Every structure is written in C-alpha cells, then in structure tokens.
Amino acid sequence: MTQNANFPGTLADRDIRHHFHAYTDAIRHAEVGPMIIERGEGVHVYDAEGRRYIEGLAGLWSVAVGFDEPRLIAAATEQMKKLPYYHNFAHRSHGPAIELADKLVAMAPVPMSKVFFTNSGSEANDSVLKMIWYRANAMGQPQRKRVISRKKGYHGVTIASASLTGLPNNHRSFDLPLPGIAHTTTPHYWREGLDGETEEEFATRCANDLEELIDSAGPDTVAAFWAEPVMGAGGVIVPPATYWDKIQAVLARHDILLIADEVITGFGRTGRMFGSETYGMRPDVMVLSKQLTSSYMPFSAIVMNERFYEPLARESHVIGTFGHGSTGGGHPVGAAVALENIAIIEERGLVDNARQVGAHLRGRLAALADHPLVGEVRGEGLIAAIELVNDKATKSVSGAPGALGARFFAAALRHGLIIRNIGDSIGICPPLILTQSQADEIAQAVENALSDVAAELAA
Fold first, then answer.
1. Which of 6, 153, 187, 248 is deepest in the core (most CB within 10 A)?
2. How far apart are CA 252 and CA 241, in angstroms?
3. 300, 338 in Cβ contact below 8 A?
4. Rounded Cα–Cα distance for residues 236 and 380 (Å)
C-alpha cells in the first residue's frame, strides 16, 4: 500500500516529509526518495514495486536465518503472550534472560563468567567503556582509563562507541572522538603493506605500532584494546597471518584487556561460531548483537570473564548498586528470539554452511580478480569484499572517493542484488542460509555490475 486516506501523498512522499534517515545525505534523499522494502522471504526482499533482490548484506550484516523464519515469529509470539516485558533491575529476572545467559557462557570460545544485556551493538560497546572506567576505580587505578581501537574499525555510533570507531565520517562535525581513545594501524596488508614487506612482517609492524602507542600513552594508563576479528563496516578487512598472535603478545606484556567486538562476526559469520575462534583470540569481553537474534528484535549482550567481572561486582557492593542498565536490557521477547535463533543456527548446521558456501562464493568472486576494476577480493567464511580501483598498478581510484562504489551499488541493484558500498569497497554478507546456487547468482550479479560500470566509465 502506497497511500493512506488519513495522510496525503504516497509512502515515498511521506518518508521524505517526516523520516530522517540514518547514514544518508538528507538533502539528496529529498531529491531521490526512499527505496521502500515491503517484505522478505529467505535470502530475498521485495520492494514496493514488487521487484525481488538477493539481500547480499543480510540487512545490516545481521539476518542469519533469513527474512521469514516462522520459528522466530512463533518464539516472539509465545513470549509476548506469556510475559511481554520485564526488566532485570533490583534483583528481578525472568526465564528467557537466565537461559540465554547460561547459553552464551556455555558456548563462548574461552572461559567466561557473566552476561550483561543491552539493546544494540553501539550501546553494548558504550557500556563496556563505562565498565572499564568503573573497574579502574574499583581496582584503585584511576589513571588506567585510556583505550585503543583501530583506524577503520567500527564499534557503533553513540558518543563513546563512535569515538571507538575509526572512521572519519563518524567523527566529523560531531566533535569526536572523546579524549582518552586512540586509534592504531589498520591491519589491511593489501592497502597498508610496504613494498617488499611480507604479510608476517606487516603483522609485526602492526604489533610494534600498537606497542609504541601504548608506550607513548604510558602503559599504566591503557586499560583495553578494542577490535573486531574481521573489520566489517570499515571494509571487510581480514587480519594478516600471525596478526592476532603478535597483538595478543603485546597486550599480555602490558596486562591490557582485549575487547572482541563480535557484533558482525558472532554466530557463524566467519565459518566458526565466533570470529575469536577463527583467529585464536582470547578476549576478556565479547560484544554480541546482530545475528544473536537475526535482528528480528533489537538485542545485544556483553559476555565477560571473571577477571573483568570481579572488580565490577566488588565496587557495586561498596556503592550498594551497579548504577547502569536500560529499560529494554534483557527484554524477554528478545531473549526468547535469541535462544530460538541460536537453536536454528546449531540444528541446521549454518556455521558449516557459512564455511562451505562462503568458500564457494569467495572462489567465484576471486575469479573476477583480473577484471580491470577489481583491486582485491578478500573475506572469511560468508563475508567478503571487493576493492574497486581504476588503476590496478597503483591501487588507486580516480574521481571523488566513493563515487566508483556508488556506481557499482546502483548497477548491482539493477541486477537484483543489494550490497553495501563502503567507500570504493563492496561489502557482501548474505544470510547464513545462502545456498550454493544463490551464491552463484550473487557472483553473476557482481560480474554483470562490473561490466556495467566499466561500460559507463568507458562512455
């Protein structure tokens, strides 16, 4: 339905009139209007005109089990009937939150102790930073509140989490980042490696850069290092060989916490249940969201080890409360959906599917590496990226930054594929239920879009 007698104009008109969009040029939006998605089915979504698309980014890196999973709808409905809402303040609890906390601790790749529930990845990362400050005071180390993340890292958009994020457009005109948050080298060997430098030598340099940053700040002032196992919104950047071994050695030398942002990589995306497993990471804290509920419900979780938790608990006893939490944290409907979503991922072997179908898709994309517009194809499991270039020898792009990526996005859309253009990188992250034949459709649409863009540029 595009019109409503109570409100003048089509849905698109009304969207332009009153809807302020995230990650959108607001003035441009008033000129071009929205793409309105009406329904979903498996890996596909349909727009208001009835056109079907493969959702090649799983919404926002997040819909693991597809867009019409009846078990999640049933789980939400049944929980709505039984207990549609309750909170976890002041000793209150409910079954879904208790069961989900148990499940997350049990399935964590390293020993964990407690789970704190929030509503989004941004809020979860924001909360972890507050906890780090609280913990430092509890430990009698009030100076130890600095944290380090990475350039091109993505950790959210609240004031604190956007400061952790290492992308300029999340800082510009927002007066960010906050003081006390520094950013170290992006571990992108293809883009950042020096001439003649091996991948392992580049990993060593990344670790040395981190150590120099710690030393310059003062090791006794740095509390934590924040990182995604695979960097998502910064361009699907896969760490070089030996990177995580070398980084964790630096953190161990200085007794610095490792915060693993698993918002994108958790629950099978990299071909293991967690990205930390894929790379041998030993985090003190894991931040989870997105595929936790397949984004059917806004929900997130902070999973922490005893080393991280114990000072928080002790300080809450001294003060008489832990003065942090949100109305919707641990929402019973969200927790019920998360439990059912995890059960589906496990029962249907979707982690293995991500590894096998992901390898097939990345192989098909790698076959496009000789195309004149393709600089690099990279990925892990069922997440991948294509770096677009105009000049393969210099790895450069002519014209305005992001313009080539925007051309590709429009061309892919014409071929029935929704992807994410991240500057001039193309992010691909379909639902975990993707079949091999659907992976072939994605690869064909990518090839067709590359041909279209090449023809446009030639003209």
1. 187
2. 19
3. no
4. 9
The structure tokens listed for 309 are: 């938790």
| Contact residues for 456 (Cβ-Cβ < 8 A; gap 6+) | 407, 411
Place of tokens 């939400």: 76
| Residues 116 and 358: beta-carbon distance below 8 Å | no
Burial of 71 (0-12, 13-18, 19+ CB in 10 A): middle
CB atoms within 10 A of CB 22: 6
Signed CA dihedral, 169, 172, 178, 182: sign only: positive
Q: Assign 183 to helix, strand or coil.
A: strand
Give the integer Cα–Cα distance in Å for 243 and 301.
Answer: 26
Residue 344 to residue 346: CA distance in whole angstroms: 5
Beta strands 300-304; 285-288: pairing state: antiparallel
Angle formed at CA 306 by CA 291 and CA 158, multiple of 5 degrees: 45
Output the CA–CA distances (angstroms, integers) from residue 141 to 222, 313, 342, in the order listed.
10, 16, 38
pLDDT in tens, 129-179: 999 999 999 999 999 999 999 999 999 999 999 999 999 999 999 999 999
Of 131, 84, 75, the C-alpha closest to 307 is 131
Q: What end-to-end distance do the CA atoms of the chain give, in Å?
A: 39
pLDDT in tens, 206-262: 999 999 999 999 999 999 999 999 999 999 999 999 999 999 999 999 999 999 999
DSSP 22: T
Give SS3 for 134. Answer: helix
The whole-angstrom distance between residue 346's C-alpha and the CA centroid of its chain comes to 21
Q: For residue 290, what is the DSSP state?
A: G
